[in-house]
Structure formats: C-alpha cells, structure tokens
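Severity: low
Component: inverse-folding endpoint
Summary: output formatting inconsistent between runs
Steps to reproduce: submit the following structure tokens with default settings.
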C-alpha cells in the first residue's frame, strides 16, 4: 500500500488493518524498512506515520512491482 500510494502517509493502525497483520509483526517490519531507508517514518501530532521513500535507490522498481501486482 505504501508504494501504491506513495504520496500518502499511513498511520500504523491503518497499515495493520489494511494488511491484516499482527501489530507486533507490522511494527517490527516497518521499523526494519524504515532503518533500511525503504520507507520514511515521521511523527505528526504524536502519531507515527509511514510513507514510501522516493529517495530510496530501489523506489522505482518497488513501485512498479506493487503497481503491477493484484
């Protein structure tokens, strides 16, 4: 979802709900992706948001991969 809508930042709860995954697993993977620079973690009004990182070298490939998948 992050690469299908790269201009949108998502709350952790929304990511968990849309991806239908456990909160602990989602937070762990989001942290890993953020530390790797694949996604960006921001804090807005004490809420954590995640968004695709267009500065990531693999951004174009990841975006095309997720757009072409069902």
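Observed output (run 2 of 3):
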């Amino acid at each position: 979802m992050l690469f299908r809508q790269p201009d949108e930042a998502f709350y952790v709860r929304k990511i968990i709900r849309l991806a239908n995954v456990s909160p602990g697993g989602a937070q762990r993977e989001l942290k890993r992706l953020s530390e790797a620079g694949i996604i960006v973690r921001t804090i807005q009004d004490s809420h954590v948001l995640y968004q695709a990182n267009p500065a990531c070298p693999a951004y174009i490939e990841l975006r095309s991969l997720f757009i072409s998948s069902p």
